Amino acid sequence: MSTLPKETPKLEWDRYLKVTTNRGIVEELRSFYEKNQPAKVDAAVNVKAIEQEQQTTVRACSVSTITSAVCLEDLSCA
């Protein structure tokens, strides 16, 4: 997401209208293009979510390792 431009490229729709025999398709494409702009995304929110997920994963792995070590010492958990 960080490599996307802030705004979508501006297209010269009149240029396409001049060279086509089917003006309706150009208008349909223009309408679709203008209605379907990418949503504005705040990268900081995504980075924070990724960092939280990584911390959760590290804690889960640590707990799993500790539990495995305890089970190896105390075979009653097998």
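the 2nd protein, sequnce then structure:
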Amino acid sequence: MLLHALTIFTGAFLLFLVQPLIGKYILPWFGGSPGVWTTCLLFFQTLLLGGYAYAHATSTWLAPRRQAWVHLALLALALATLPIAPGAEWKPLNGDAPTSRILLLLGACLGLPYLALAATGPLVQRWFSLAHPGVSPYRLYALSNTGSLLALLAYPFAVEPLLTRPQQSWAWSGGMVLFAVLCGASAWRARNLPDAPAPPAPGEDKTGDAVAPTAMVVFFWIALPAVASVLLVAVTNKLSTDVAVIPFLWIVPLGLYLLTFILCFDHPRWYARASFSALLAIGCGTVWHLLDQGPSAKLPLQVAGYLLTLFAACMVGHGELHLLKPAPRHLTAFYLCIALGGALGGVLVAVAAPRVFPDYYELPLGLWTLAYFTGVLCLVRRSRELAAGSGLGVLTLLLLLPALKTKGADGPLDWLRLFLEHVRTFHRGHWLELLCVFVLLHACLHDGWRPVGRAWRPRMSLFPLLMSILLGVVFIIQAVDGARTAVERVRNFYGTLKVRSYNAGAPTHYLLFSHGVTTHGLQFTERPRSLQPATYYGPTSGVGRIIDFLPGFPGRHIGLVGLGAGSIAAYGLPGDRLRIYEINPDVTRIARQRFTYLADSPAAVELVPGDARLSLEAELARGQRQRFDLLALDAFSSDAIPVHLLTAEAFDLYLEHLRPGGVIAVHISNRHLDLRPVIVAQAKRQLMHFLTIADEPGDDTWWLYSTTWMLLSRDPGLLEDDALAPHADPPPDATAKPVLWTDDFASLLGVLK
């Protein structure tokens, strides 16, 4: 039994340790987009499905002896592909389809080892059930998820800070060899097992082995994991889009997702139907509110709201899944359906959603679907607890929403104080809503004025079903309102783009370009105002001042990472050259078709498709040093920071393309993070002088946004000029600790505001 447990634990540990490891390897190659991790998850879930299908097929059609030999052969092939580090030949070329390129890369570098690891859990559990008749194997599934969770916790706190990426790859490969030894020993023992189904575990229905699962049960075996997978990827996308695309923010949602598997499959006592269905209702309302608030919601409330809702939703989904588990005879089929559901969820988010939805609708859609499934399960499983929990959640939500809407909370403790105050005064303004919900809940759960105890009534399912209908209506209204002013909406691998039209009369008619929740450009449609730069590129911003200072150099050569609406082209003069790097082809198309900055500029504008860092590397390899007078970095995807563009290796590359005495300008405006320590660390490492210009335009120039730009140069006289120095912020405190980011390690903990 110990050998089985060690094999399953080691395999699960390696299975999930490799996910952030390989994601970190390839993230800088594909623009640092949240789509990189979404595509990685699709690969992992698909290979997991393949592993479970392999385990189900071999255990169904082969005797244990042949299963053992086949699995030993698979382990040998997997070891032959080590190490797993992808080579430079896998870096994308301009025009490559990122999703297919990532899937091919992962398949070639990681396919066989990951398939062998994925098959281990269900296959070894099947061997365990044959070797130990009468003992339920399902707690080994909880052990498997425990190993996975520990791997995710180990990566950001132990693996990433201590080992470089090549060292991580070799260490993982060594772990794979150890796993192969353990799994080989388990397979060798399995060759002598009888080819007979295990008798039912104590307390199970003895007819369970003989009765095949119904079609509805199999449907929920697939549908519940699919919804949980959709919510996992949707919440990860939300956090990555609004904060940063780094493995740490991928790990937290995935860790909570695994924790729910551990709790639900360890023992039924962890899943309290009434409590978690109530939390699901509260979470749905919280997500609706956070989506409605958009970027104005406080970061701690956003993170807590999305993660706690994900936890509650996965507890409901996986808890109901565990209650539908079959007898051990059908174990591999059960796990195969779970893996199929997870893969379907990944396909829906990574492949279907960007082609079907113009915005990130999968989060509210996933919550609505789970709420509906909760109502259906309440009806078919005759669960009074699900009905009562849903009603309790709606009542609590009516108390929560007024507190959530307050703008006076600066932190969790302050928000708790205001919430308690709202609870105390709630009856004054919301008694009617409270009364209506109470009456409906009473009618569903009670017979007249006498409680029905634990007796079931079909009308009890009305409350969760009506709640799901109401939730769907609310999310549809929210989606329609969000699209009301949009003249164009598009979504692709790199995120969601919107162009909105605002008309308050001819002089103030303008188009607003946004990526996610962050504005990426604004232009007035009437001349001469259409020729003036706006948003982050105003004349008093850091980049505006340094560009105005550059006319001392004839024929300025300016580079920009991140096109947006093309506002920087408004500064172009005859003889200037503007070289703009943009990875998102839809951004390029919109900037050309909807905005006129590029067409109106007298400068020679050249747009370079593809990731800026890879393009600069390729130019350097061809001997094409750009010798920029100014290189401006403004490649933000929504509010997420481009981590791979702010590392030491990236700055080494920028200096190769900068003329002596040239300037690097970095846009560090961010709602949640203070990036100044990161840029200061790079400046000190490169022996560059720097200054910070924070611009706060007045209300009379509303089209200019508050910005913070940092300017770096090895020419001290340039930054000390009277045209720049008087507008700079005081230098940072000498005791402030710089935060050096590299490709191997970049932590957000030191830069949180």
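Residues 98-131 form the longest helix (34 residues). The mean pLDDT is 81.
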